[in-house]
Amino acid sequence: MKRAWAQGMQLVPGQDFVSASLSTPYIKIDNGREDPSAWSLPLECRNFHDNRASAIEFREKLFIMSRANVYRKYGALVGLSGSVGNAAEQEYLTRVYRAQVVKVPVFLSTCTGAAPFEAVQREVSVCDGESKQLAKVGEMAFENRLKVPVLIITDTRAEATKIVKELRHVAEAKQLNPQDVVRDVSRNMYETNVEQFKENLFKVGQAVARGPEEPFRISVTDATGGRGVDYRVTNPQADKHGGLLLIITAVPRVQRDWVQYLGRTGRQDNHGQWSVVLNRLDYKNDEEKHGQRLESGTAVETILNWGNVSSKEQLAGLQHDYHRGTRMNEICEYLWQRNLVQQEKDREVLVQLCNNYSKMSISQINQCAAQINGCNPQDIKTVAQEVGSVPGAIRSNNLTQVAKSWAGQARSIVIAVDRSSSMMSQDAHLRGTRRSRFDVCRESIMDIFLHHVDDQDSLGLYTFETDVKEVFPLSQKGVHKAKIEQMIKAMPGPSGLTKFYDAVLSAMTQLKERDGPKYLIALTDGDDNMSRSQPQGQLVAEAIRAGIPDFNLIVITVGSDVKKPMIEGIKRWCSMVKSTGNIGTYIGADNPAELSNAFAHVADLLTADEGHIED
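Structure (tokenized):
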């Protein structure tokens, strides 16, 4: 909570959140977009601090369940469905859930002397434009209502409302009662006038008046009414002429929805029939994507095939989510069965892992889970397969450090900065203004301290010229913040030569005594010419080879006065550190104008190892 509070105070308006009004809570910005449903504990803290909320809502996710993993624990499960999906979906259910599809015969086909009637296809038309589609639907509906009830199934509520309005105009022109002849059974009608909806539904299959032709009503619904609604037709004359006629204005791309649509007619022992009238423009993107033009005779099969292709693509994408979720389910079961998340730091690792696993690889999930005391992922059997991480999501090459940060382990950060005379060179830039190299360093160090060091972390600062000087020892930010700020601002200006190697060794010696993650950030703009005991940095190399637990190294060189042999030696240090699984990074700012960008890179590395995983 302390870390979330500190992070909340550093959130930037317009970048991290927006304000809808002066009194309502801030809205989180995710991937550059406002997301009113997104929750963030730092933002909750900021809302509370700024009097935008009277309380802090705390959410804690401690278990990930994989539905497929749970299903597989049962010896057998039996389920019934009127539509089990297209070929791609059935293949997925078989492979992931180990499901077997058994087709149960239609009830009437099992009865002696009775047989079900399948809905009969009448016409499939593809119209060029909405006006032609509406005209065709109206013509077909009014022609057929003279013998059978008509139900028009549209794609959306708005389409249903539009067609009701258009057909009532036609009915009025034909001197019919438009409110009675054209009935609205859409979701909109249900939500605005449920009693009228019930009356309309009751009259779907009834004739308007008795007579030799017994004309029927035209009813209009949306996709919701195309599934699960029983439209009763008991009129024997209607059944004699083929039964309830469906006019479908948009074929769904999902097979199970199409089956549901057709199931609205030909029910029980009644006949049924259907026609399709499409607007080509509704399928323009599909035609372009698949390189195939809709034709009237084969439009239904074409659209359903497009849906099958899309399902395959979507299910292929779900494979990554499935394997990550399965692995998390296995780990969560292991942890809770053994009661391994009672300690605060272990609980925090699990919470963060549950929040971030969907972007991680299986090996990264295991690496972070291993930081929970008593958890050895190698002992947890798995059926999950490695799928890799979401590209660009994991900004740190050191997931162990990320997990330790999640567990609340404070970091020790020492910065060793060159204060030799050459640092006075006025060839650096900061926010578009020419500045000295040293001024840019000082302000960049302040920025890192204020925005990328947590309150529980400790910061130490060394400078070096002819001698190595400790500006201040490792000091906890939360306790000594004001004093540290003052000492960074008061750093004396450059003078003297360059004792780089000894400064690095002194910083490493101080870090070696600390527990938890350790970071050394060193910067120089020239070759070392004062480290007499290690003119090539031999003692630093020996200390790295000897090993410092959780040690991370970032080195910046500025300008062209740092010669190749020294740079190669620094790169070897970084390579040795990186081989231990920690951060070992060399940043060369050959053009001093790029110095502020080099520090921005350092800030990114520190932010990544604060446990941040990008969306």
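The CA atoms of residues 410 and 457 lie 5 Å apart. The first helix runs from residue 2 to 9.
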